[in-house]
Structures are given as structure tokens and as C-alpha cells.
Amino acid sequence: MSRVAHNAPSGSGSTTRHLVFVCPDQLAPNGPALREADPSQDVIVMGESRAEATRFPFHIQRLTLIFSAMRHLAERLAELKFRVDYHRIGEAGPESLPDILEQAILACSPESVRMTRPNRFDLIEGFEAVAKKHGIALILLDDDHFLTTPEAFGAWASGRKTLVMEHFYRKMRKETGWLMEGDKPAGGDWNFDKDNRESFGKEGPRLKADPIRFEPDAITRDVIEDLQRELPDLPGSIASFGWPVTPEQAQQVLDHFISHQLPEFGRWQDAMWTDEPWLRHSLISPAMNLQLLDPRTAIAAAEQAWIEGHAPINAVEGFIRQILGWREFIRGVYWLEGPEYGHRNALGAELPLPGFYWDAKTEMTCVRQVVQQVLDHGYAHHIQRLMVTGLYALVSGTHPWDIHSWYMGLFVDSYDWVTLPNTVGMSQFADGGVVATKPYIASGQYVDRMSNYCQSCRFNPKKATGEDACPISTLYWSFLMEHEDELAANRRMRFQVANLRRKSPEERQAILNRRDEWLRQVNPVNQVIPPSPALP
User: For the residues 264-286, what does the mean pLDDT come to?
Assistant: First the structure.
């Protein structure tokens, strides 16, 4: 595929009505801008931007997924006789998305530029600046992939002291009618989370079906070759790549999940197990966040499975809540809080991200397992993110932007609107309580309860001091000490603070000493970890 596909429009030469710019994460073939495009008058513009590809240390599977999905869409549009101005990674010319748009404006002299409203503040500003520079109309269409708008979310949030996802979720249920029986929630409760917290037990996951994975086709293999040539130092392995790169493949992944995994998804959705990366999770977020799969399709399929008796209400409700509730809520927070949100650091965390997040070289089995899984596949499920990698970063005092950059870089489903609030808000509590009502912290005993990781680990999750103390347990207690006064004022943290206050001064000092010893081991040699002052 050349940068400019040679599909000449019917009519007069190179006359262009609209440039239709397709952002790399808005690849629905029937998206707002594309569904109104005319092959005889409009030019489609798409680009693999080097500037975008190097914003964060991106996993090779993430860039492969995005670029392959883009090239598949471009090929589909060319088959529909559209002129497609497509900029491939490695080609000479502009390197940012706004610069790619500017080059197309200069080449085509269109009457206007049309695009679905981008999902990032800085991209909107960049595109607006290009349009203003050339005196051309920029038409931004509402992104109807999502189930609510930033404006509607802002209206809901206005005047509220706290933003509680559960309240927003119930509003969305009532408005959409999903999982509703009249004005009552299906099954008699709004939320069945209490039924969705089981561990696997000694028998393990007892999986009945492997997930659907796709062998790279010719387009995907070309993308891999281009990336290995142009960006040879990308982190992660490409060996296991099997993500869906077309809407048809995304639908297959959803269908497989509904048929084989959804019935038992809810019960074990928080559980973890050694060397089992996929378990019963849907694996649809990479495709959904590229808009290869409509969230309405996923919700409707899950609801129908409950109606037909194929899946229990706790599994279906838990799955739908992740999409209709949490996904929409997090996006609303992104737009509500504005571009400065990523700079928040309410807890004053300043340590760098340890090196083992990049090479999995740590004696902590839970962290090693999850990080290696991410390096291998670009994926970990929500509890592995929140209560292993996120938990360690939080209780160790890692700077929130460092761990955010890691999530943005190494996960195939990462995008600013979803990753930033999930990390700064939910995972690291760096926003001071906008997203979460408390810091999500626990000792290593939580990991032990929800997985088999600790069985093969040299550290003891029940111990916070001594050579075999679990670092997460040590850091958990030291975190409580460091933030004791502010946490005591949070009613959801009072039980944990009360447990802390049962510890003697000698126990506290031993924990702080063990913390300092651990942090000096795992942080870079040029990062000075000052010793903790002796407690009175």
C-alpha cells in the first residue's frame, strides 16, 4: 500500500470536497466521519505517526495491533473506491498526526476537513491549529461509539461532592434499559460484585476453552517487519501476537467469550493463577478501544445470554458494569478533569519505577509473573493491574506518572482517556479521591488469597519484617504509617488504620527499617533513599 492509494475519484480530476481524517483509535468502518463520506468527492487521510509511536515506550504488540488494524481499514476503504492518503511508518515526510493532516491539505486543497472528535485534548488542539493556519473549516463530529457524551457526564457530575461510579452506572442502566425489568434492576440487585470475588482454590482455574487468537496475516506481517526496522528497540515480545485486527475478528472474540467463558466469568473474575494469562476474561478491550467492536454489541450479547439462561446474572451484570459503568465513567472523568489531570500527585510519591517493571527480574513471584506476562502479551487483567503492579507502585511511593507511562506503553488496550484516570485515580489515588473513595491498598495476603503466586515465592505474605518478609506487606504497613493522619479521616480506611495503631513503636520501626533496606535494593544506584528517622 503506497502512501496515496491510486483510486481516482469519478468526476473532475483531483477535486476534493472533504478530507476525512481517521484517527488511529477510531477505526470503525461506519464511524461518524466515514459513514457520510463519498468516494467520488472525498479523500480519506490516515497516518502511522512516528511522533505518536514514540510518545511512550510502546510494546511492539500494541503498535502492531494499531497499525495492522489501520492498514486493514485502509484496504477496505480502497476496495470501496475511496482515495486513501495513507502515511506508513518509515516514509519520509511528516511525523505527527497534525502534520500528516497539513500535508494532505496542501496536496488536496479541500473545502473542509471532517473527523470524529479525537479522544485526546492535545490532538484536538493540534488539528485546530492546522485548520486555522490554512483557513479551512474543521468539522468535529461527536464520537457515537461511546454510550454517553462528555457534556452529559459533566451535567451529571455538576454539583456532586464526590463522583461515585455506582451512582453513574445505575443512571446509565435506567437510561439505556439494559438489565432492567421495568424500573427495577434485573435479578433484584444493581450490583452482584459480592458474588464475583472467589479464588480458584487448590483445583486451579479448570479452564474449558482456550481463547481465540489469530495468526498474523500478510498485512500484519508487513507491519511487524516495518516496526522492527524503524523502531528496533521497542519493548516486549511479538512472538505471541494474535489480537483481532478487523471488526469481523473482534466479533469472533466476543462470540467465543459469550459461548465459552461468560457463564463462569463473574465468579472468578478477580482470581489469578501462575502462567495463565487469559483465564475467563473476554479479551475484547483492545478491539473495543480501537472501535473495531461496538460496546452496544457486547452488552446486548451478554444480556441475551442471561435472558436465554446461558449465563448467570452475577456474571452478566459484572461484565456489563465494566463497559456500561466503569468504561463510560472513566472516559467522563478524563474529559471532566482536563489536560492537567495527569500532573496530579496527591500523595507526594516521588520514587522512580523499579527496573523489574521492564525485565521481570524480581524475586516477588506475583510481580514477576504479571510483568513477564505483560512483556510476552501486552496484557494483564484488571486485578493484576490494580492489585499487583499498581499496588506495588502505590505502596512503594512510585511517582504516578512513571507507572502511568508503563501502563500506557506496555498494554495493548491503553489510551489516554482510559489509562490516565484508571492509573492516576483508581490505581495510585494521585487525584486525591476523584475516581476512588480510598486508596486501593492491601498486604501480600490479598495476593495470596486471590492467587497461587505466593506458594512458589520465597517471601512470606504474612510477614512484614525479616529477610523473608513480603515486600508488598512491608510497604503496605509503611504506607499506612506515612499517610496515617489523612487515611484516618477516610471512613473506608478506619479498619486498616485501627490495625496499624495496634502495632508498637518497635514494630513500626522494624517495618520502616525493612522498607528502607528493600527500596535501596530495587531502586537505581543514583536514587538516594534517605533512612527513616527513628520513631519516638
Answer: 97
Total residue length of the chain:
536
Q: Are 494 and 436 found together in one domain?
A: yes
Q: Do 16 and 41 form a contact (C-beta atoms < 8 A)?
A: yes
Tens of pLDDT, residues 295-327: 999 999 999 999 999 999 999 999 999 999 999
- The Cα 131–Cα 137 span in angstroms is 6
Residue matched to cell numbers 492535545: 122
Give me the domain span that covers residue 249: 150-336
Q: How many domains does the chain contain in total? A: 3
C-alpha cell, 468:
523473608
**What CATH code is carried by the domain that includes residue 117?**
3.40.50.620
In the block, which residue shows the cell 471512613? 491
Largest CA distance in the chain: 85
Could you read off the pLDDT of 88-106 as tens digits, one per residue?
Answer: 999 988 999 999 999 999 9
**86/213 same-domain check:** no
HEC string for 380-412:
CCHHHHHHHHHHHHHHHCECHHHHHHHHHHHCC
Whether 458 and 390 share a structural domain: yes
Please, are residues 485 and 497 in contact by the beta-carbon 8 Å criterion?
A: no
Question: Quick check: 108 and 43 in contact, CB under 8 A?
Answer: yes
- In this predicted structure, the answer to whether residue 408 has a pLDDT above a threshold of 60 is yes
Enclosing H/E stretch for 139? strand 137-141
**pLDDT, averaged across the chain:** 94
Would you place residue 14 in the very low, low, confident or very high pLDDT band (cuts 50, 70, 90)? low
Q: How many other C-beta atoms lie within 10 A of the C-beta of residue 409?
A: 21
Q: Cβ(262)–Cβ(320) under 8 Å?
A: no
Does residue 380 register a pLDDT over 70? yes
The pLDDT tens digits for 381-392 are 999 999 999 999
Unique residue bearing C-alpha cell 483481532: 244
Q: What is the dihedral of CA 303, 154, 417, 74, to 10 degrees?
A: 70
The DSSP output letter for 465 is S
Residue 524's pLDDT band, with cuts at 50, 70 and 90, is low
- Residue for grid cell 527513628: 534
Average pLDDT over residues 399-426: 98
Q: What are phi and psi of 20, to 5 degrees?
A: -105, 105
51 Cβ partners below 8 Å, 6+ apart? Answer: 95, 96, 97, 99
Q: Which of 305, 336, 367 is the last residue of a domain?
A: 336
C-beta of residue 410 within 8 angstroms of C-beta of residue 402: no
Provide the 10 A C-beta neighbour count for residue 414. Answer: 24
| pLDDT of amino acid 4 | 42
